Amino acid sequence: MGKLAPLTVIVTASGAPGTAALLRSLRQNGERDIRLVGTDMSERAIGRHLCDAFHVVPRGSDPSFPDAIRDIAAREGAAAVLPQSSFDLEGLAGSRDTFGDVAVLVSSPDAIHRCNDKAETYELLHRLGLPAPAFRRVAGGRAVEAAARELGYPDVPVCFKPVFSSGSRGFRILDPTVDRAHQLLHERPGSVAMRLEEAVELLPEAGGTELLVMELATGGERTIDGIANGERIVLGHPKTREAMRAGLAMYFETLEDPALMEVANTLVAELKIEHFYNIQLVGDYVIEINPRISTIVYQEDLNLPYLGIKRAIGEISDEELVALRSRIRPGRSALRYFDQVEFDVR
Questions:
Q1: 328, 302 in Cβ contact below 8 A?
Q2: What is the rounded CA–CA span in Å between residue 32 and residue 3?
Q3: 10-residue block means of pLDDT along the chain (346 residues)?
Q4: Which helix (H) or strand (E) holds 69?
Q5: What pLDDT is recorded for position 158?
Q6: DSSP for 175-235, written as a single string
Q7: Which of 273, 342, 315 minimizes the C-alpha distance to 34?
């Protein structure tokens, strides 16, 4: 059997931590040549060195971002756009119908908004009876202090993060027992733990960025990742998320857990998530729903990113993807590590 026709795929946020593995998996699909076009708001993104073409674009939150990606797709002859960053999703979702025959792997604007608004996410989780932290949506130092005390501070630690954020950006633990001297002398810069009074001092007394003050979820971290069709999961699995380093997990192990898949299916159906999804838990609590691709545990016989693109361009059906579920191997592990490239700037 000969190779399939070549494809050109745009990968946004190509400076993201999982970019190198993602690009490698797309190239090693075993069926066709894929020409990869990376975009990023930084010219120092690794995609510049690993992709066949690279373009600097506005940040994902910039109103001109969708137009820039659409223009690049037209110039490069792209068949699909695969966004990696949460910040890229809203603009692309609102403009996906303007891309013509180019498949943009993003859910509807409503689904993106509901997932990105963490307060709305938690309200949904509680309404569905799914395990989620108790929370308060507030703005300003006075409201943060009141919410923290309502949730049990100082008897128990609590945490907060911006209502609209990605990853661990803006996340802080409020812990009255934190040892500031130990942090200063023995820990790396960037500790997420602080006392309530320190946070209140840094925040405006009222107003400012909306924050979620939450019960602190504890326990092991797990995610459910895969491909959805707006009604259900067609292919996916849970995995662990371990060995945290600088806010990034460095080790992952595929799990077999029907209960987690049921939780994920409920959320996919309720939010109408399509294409890639990533649902994150700490302990038993769902803490984040990301309607985008995230870290993948790759298998030589199950290439999730490539299969997601094939589905988006109409080359594989949902039923065919469902039939591939038996290939998922519990215990398959991924170990992330740092690498580098060298180049001359002059």
A1: yes
A2: 5
A3: 91 96 98 98 97 98 97 98 96 97 98 93 95 96 97 96 80 91 76 91 94 95 98 98 89 98 98 98 96 97 98 98 98 96 90
A4: helix 65-76
A5: 97
A6: -TT--HHHHHHHS-S---EE-HHHHHHHS-SS-SSEEEEEE---S-EEEEEEEEESSSEEE
A7: 315
Instruction: Give Cα 249 distance to the centre of its chain.
Output: 12
Q: What are the chain's domains?
A: 7-106 (3.40.50.20), 113-118+218-335 (3.30.470.20), 141-215 (no CATH)
Q: What SS3 class is residue 253?
A: strand
Token digits for 31? 């069926």
> Tokens for 113?
């908004």
**Length of the chain (residues):** 346
Joined together, the tokens standing for residue 44 give: 């120092």
Tokens of 191: 């500790």
